[in-house]
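Second opinion, please. Pick holes in both lines of this record:
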Amino acid sequence: MTADHGAGDVSVDLLTQTYRDHYSSLLKLAALLLDDAASCEDVVQEAFIRVHSARTRVREPEKLLAYLRQTVVNLSRSTLRRRLIGLRLAPKPMPDMASAEEGAYELLEKDALIQALRGIQRRQREVLVLRYFADLTEAQVATLLGISIGSVKAYGSRGIEALRVRMEAFR
């Protein structure tokens, strides 16, 4: 059953196949930008829902995966923004007591590379994840993040250096 709406539109079949082929890689992309599995799954599911709703506006089916990646990045940013607002409004824990949330995050953050990635600037992390995990070109990263290729190179270079320093600190 194909739900084509016009020449070039993304069909439900293509979206379903893209889901099967790329769900795992999009989940890993979200995991490098966020810090818990449930949020990652929520972000990726929401990305597919949004792309499904907007599929008649995606005129070039070969760009579907890029559109999904951008949606995952944008939704990850929104998730982090909401958390920051929530943390600002939440009552502060007693200074001598670690919160339950901190303990849960410590269990999730066992991998040194992921810890190091989380410690660098957001834009540097996004560039490194998209360049080296998602294997995008500098031009694709620039388009996805809405920045220049020169900025991608600068954030990438600074991010690699920051990551190197943080990885050495873990050793």
About this structure: The chain has a mean pLDDT of 82. The longest helix spans residues 64-89. DSSP finds eight helices and no strands in the chain.
